[in-house]
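Final report, closing paragraph on structural work. Over the funding period we assembled a curated collection of sequence-structure pairs, and we close with a single example.
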Amino acid sequence: MRVIIVDDEQHVRTSIKSLVDWEKHGISEIDEAENGMEAIEIINKRKPSIIITDMVMPYKNGVQLLEWVEDHCQDSRIIVISGYNDFELVRSTIKHGVIDYLLKPIDQQQLIDTIEQAIIKYNKSLDERNELVEKNRKVVKLSSIYKDKLLSQHLTQEHNQYDQLLKELGHEYPLLHNIKHTSLAIIDVALLNKQIRHDYNWNNELLTFSVRNICNEILNNGKKGIVFQNLNSPNEIAIILWNDKYRGEAILQEINQVLEKLLYTKLYIGFSPGTPYMTRLAESYEKAKIALLNNNLLDKDNFINSYTQNEIKRYQSLNFAAYSDDLKYALKSSNPNRIKCLLDKWYDYLKQLYPITLGQLKMWLHEFSVIKMRWLQELSVKNDLVYETTLNEIELYEMLDRNGNLDLSLLIQTVAKDLKELSVYYCEQIVQSTNVIHQIARYIEINYEKNLSLQELSDEFLLNKEHISRKFKQIFNETFINYLNRIRIEKAKLLLENPNIKIIDIAFMVGYQDEKYFSRVFKKIEGKSPKDYRALHTISNML
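Its predicted structure, as stored:
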């Protein structure tokens, strides 16, 4: 939760900040402004939950600020702190829905009580909004599902069943009977940023419904077009605009303006203008999809991209693969400084790129996912190679700022966090596998007489056999088979001191099925045959 304190006197702002335990009330960020004009700029960007403002300030005064907030930031709760006990000022604040009008000097307890009241009202307004949206969603859900299914089918393949579409939807959308042109736009709700998702309690269905509802209002409930959810791609909202192929982009601009006012962000839209009739929706959809993917995520002004004949372009790769090998070795060595250094180099490379499109970012996400899976296969010691940590796939919205643009610093932070968790996972596996290798060594010492193999150990301890072989060499400075032979020969030496046991029986007792092979291994390790070893140690024992 955010707060902004607006007052032209620094000591007043400092005093207000010091009087309240903000963290206790769930407020983590506090902004300051010296006047109404500066406050508007900050409020526009930061969307605070609570606004604490003076009334008499230069440039834009408190009354002007309250008027602006009422039009542009209706969810924010307002507290006025003023040195003027003026009836007109008080009346203005009441008119604009102010929580309370506090007089200077500020009473600490009164300020705390008022802030608590503001927080309650802010949370209540959010709950009421979400509850209203949820009620509306339930009312229209059943009727809209069939419509969504019907229209979604027309996006994936060319249909010659326009008559059926007209029959099913013509009564709800009478203008369908006279359509000559259609335009198609698609919106990807997956690009809504983290703050909005938090405000909606991470309820993606509710959020999608809200965006859809806003679009439907702008389309005047079917008089300008149809909005529906593309069931083939659940994060997509599709908009069919009819007849006026020249005003389509203006309608989409209006949708984004309302989204910015209500959700404090714009959404990227791909637009395919002017296709004759509705039988070519699939073609329009493909063009709108290309246009959406070509949206420049670094452009702070343009969120709508219209398809043109030259729209299919080849954009430069984000080039993460160039750093992947070095990053893998940094992960293996658990070297956070090296990881940071490599990500800084990649960040410097990214800063030189313009544009960076949605398509590029999605391609990079796929590339990063493939690289991570390859790393996991190389680093994992599990037989099934399953990544058993709580790491989640990186989501697009994690890299977008409050206004919906790509923030390269957020991208680097997100990747750094993901790599850190991957490095921790790898280190845990190494520690675990080292302990397991010692357990395997103990298992061999106990079960040396069995027909042991790397595959049997792999099945027993759920580690891949290549990893067992490699770790044995690292920890014991000898191969698995040499370790096993050494244990067996040590046991055989003890048995050979008993002259009553046949050498062929000793071979079987320590795990060898072939006496000749046993003798060769024994001589290789001890420098003499089992028979010679027995003769020597029998004489020694007699002496």
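DSSP finds 20 helices and ten strands in the chain. The first strand starts at residue 2 and ends at 6. We thank the funder for supporting this effort.
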